[in-house]
Amino acid sequence: MKFAFILYKYFPFGGLQRDFIRIAKTCREMGHDIVVYTLSWEGDIPEDFDVHTHKPLAITAPARNRRFQRWVQQQLQASPVDIVIGFNKMPGLNIYYAADTCFEHKARHLRKSWYKYTPRYRHFSTDEEAVFGRQSQTISLLISANEKTLFQKYYQTPKQRLHLLPPGISRDRRRPDNADEIRRAFREEFQLQDDEQLVLMVGSGFKTKGVDRALLALKGLPSGLRDKTRLFIVGQDDPRAFRTQAKTLGISDQVTFFQGRDDIPRFLIGADLLVHPAYNENTGTVLLEALVAGLPVLCTDVCGYAHYVTDANAGDVVPSPFQQKDINCRLKSMLISDQKTKWQKNALAFANSADIYSMPERAAAIIEETARRHAKQHTPSQQTDEAGGSR
């Protein structure tokens, strides 16, 4: 069969984009043809993927998205497919992969009251309604139980249209046998001394991920501990505002920013702690990537995957409502704790036993089954009379 995948933007380092590429590749391995429609594509194109890009001229994101959506519908009419899978909310999808959080919930609780009267709100609210509304037929693949509850709360989406998937951590994130050697080489490369501790942040979208909170937490450490702590921040975003914040706080020498990279496993092995103080996070895949690499985690409880940190007993979770003094204390406590070896052992034991790797296969199976069911529903009856009418 022929599957169409739609997403606004592809680049190699986004969580949504990484999930898309793994699911699409799994579908390709099952023998299906893959066509992709996107505004832009950065990086290599997988073999046998038919990628089409179109970025309309528009002043605002809603206007651009609407024009792109119309273009996609024109392409699908000219070249039909068996099923349409979207990784951003929009009309006309057979299946939606819910990498994003519930927009309506954010609009009501994280925005000013006047936001609901803006064109931007109307655009994204309409697109979310098109996916989750009771009149829609779109099936959604969810990766967060919390978000499933929110979508049902705001849209009363029938439960048969909502499929909760397990996490899909890539097995290459698991701690390798030569991890000690990798760690030594990594720390030599970045001139990390034996008595220095490395705190790591990974994620595109520095504001949402809470980089400002991490910088304040580093500043909040006692001076002797702070001087022996480094913070590496890796992600596809503009770091200028946060570099300014670090300079204002007087911690620039302790902080290093990196653009998105494809060698994150080295960073996870070379670090001593992952910090992820997100304001809003559907899942937080990097939390699980850290655990399977044996790296303890400090995160906020708004992350959909935060409960895995607690389940594994491999770190700490900052409860809501968030307080900066709270995370400052928890960061200090973890850095001076004698539990680091225990946390690492617990994390690696969790990696060996938990079902946290099968998302791409489960998603592809649902896509294939939905496509077959869709094809049967749209196949004309073979039982026709001589005049061409149905019996």
Average the pLDDT over all residues and give the rounded result.
Answer: 94
What would you say the CATH architecture of the largest domain is? Answer: 3-Layer(aba) Sandwich
**Total domain modules:** 2
Beta fraction: 15-25%
* The named CATH superfamily of the largest domain: Glycogen Phosphorylase B
Task: Write a structural description.
This protein is of the alpha/beta class and 391 residues long. The chain has two domains: 2-166 and 358-377, 3-Layer(aba) Sandwich (Rossmann fold); 171-353, Rossmann fold. The protein is 44% helix and 17% strand. It is built from 16 helices and 13 strands. The protein has helices at residues 15-29, 61-78, 103-109, 119-132, 145-155, 179-189, 206-209, 211-219, 223-226, 240-249, 264-270, 285-292, 306-312, 324-336, 340-353, 359-377, and strands at 2-10, 33-41, 49-53, 83-86, 95-98, 139-142, 162-164, 197-202, 229-234, 255-258, 273-276, 297-300, 315-318. The strands form two sheets. The protein has a seven-stranded parallel sheet, with helices on both faces. Strands 10-9-8-11-12-13 form a six-stranded parallel sheet, sandwiched between helices. Helix 1 crosses helix 16 (359-377), helix 6 (179-189) crosses helix 11 (264-270) and helix 8 runs parallel beside helix 10 (240-249). It is globular.
